[in-house]
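User: Fold this; tokens only.

Assistant: Input:
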Amino acid sequence: MATELEYLKENHQHPFGHIVQIHEIGPYAVVEYRPKRERAASEPPRETETMFSSYVHGKRTITSHDTLDAALAHCIAVNAEGNNTMASFYFMRMLAGS
């Protein structure tokens, strides 16, 4: 049975939008995509309309990120602590200095 990541590679379709590129590093993959939907009026504007979705061992982590760095940090945290980890959030905050 194919993993979710293998399915994306074969069909070139992400559930949330058009795939721009798939970045792979060992067991981690980050799918760069352009979202299908427009932002709601209540949502704050993003710096870019490109989003990043994390995959670990071919399985989706059910999160999207504004940057490739945040998506990769999330991959590492999920691999170490499981899907409900908050480690990547705190790590990115620490790097930002807030």
